[in-house]
TrEMBL record:
Keyword terms of this UniProt record: Membrane, Transmembrane, Transmembrane helix
Location of the region described as Disordered in the Swiss-Prot/TrEMBL record: 163-196
Membrane-spanning parts: 6-24
Keyword Transmembrane: yes
Bias-annotated ranges (Basic and acidic residues): 186-196
The keyword Transmembrane appears for this protein: yes
Protein name: Uncharacterized protein
Domain of life the protein comes from: Bacteria
Taxon lineage: Bacteria, Bacillati, Actinomycetota, Actinomycetes, Streptosporangiales
Organism: Actinoallomurus bryophytorum
Length: 196
């Protein structure tokens, strides 16, 4: 073999090895990025879900209290002495899980979580009779809560690249519980609350 053929063969082997190395490195990098994204998506999903569960618990307790006060027909009322303790615990759960959403969430989700948290406070205050009284004020607070919950769910699905589903709750103007447009029950600060 002459030297020219050996150089071409050697260059082909080196080029093939370099291409193989580059392709393997790129493939591993893409795989690592995909796994990294999946890990963070799992953490975001957990944070979003925990926050939504804490909000749902607070809403359920508010509805129970509102039923007890005659503001709505709904779930079986929980004894009053038990409900205040459970509502306080739910407030702490909301505060703790909200921090995870703020830390891990996309900006749109954090903004939606802010409004959902605010609407939940309004709902609790209306149920307790602190910010609003009467069935109409309760219905307005409940409609505002439902609207904000729908916005939060939409933002979380978009953040996690989950396709939109048809089971989204209807807007408050189609809500059988209330036909009142989503209006804040009050704009006042809740007395004695440092959780905001």
């Amino acid at each position: 073999m002459d030297v020219g053929t050996q150089i071409i063969t050697l260059a082909s082997v080196v080029t093939g090895g370099a291409i193989s190395l580059i392709a393997t490195t790129m493939s591993e990098r893409i795989k690592w990025k995909r796994e990294h994204h999946a890990r963070w998506a799992d953490r975001r999903l957990e944070a979003y879900r925990n926050f939504a569960q804490a909000i749902s618990l607070s809403s359920a307790l508010s509805r129970s209290l509102a039923t007890d006060r005659g503001l709505m027909n709904g779930p079986f009322p929980i004894p009053l002495e038990e409900i205040e303790e459970r509502m306080l615990q739910a407030d702490y759960e909301i505060a703790a899980t909200y921090e995870s959403v703020r830390l891990l969430g996309a900006n749109t989700v954090v903004n939606a979580a802010d409004m959902l948290r605010y609407s939940t406070w309004e709902l609790c205050d209306a149920a307790r009779g602190l910010s609003a009284t009467g069935e109409q004020k309760w219905n307005a607070a409940y409609a505002f809560y439902r609207d904000q919950r729908a916005i939060y769910y939409t933002a979380t699905r978009l953040s996690l690249n989950i396709p939109d589903i048809e089971k989204t709750p209807p807007p408050s103007d189609q809500n059988p519980v209330s036909r009142t447009p989503g209006v804040r029950a009050s704009g006042e600060e809740r007395p004695g609350s440092d959780l905001r």
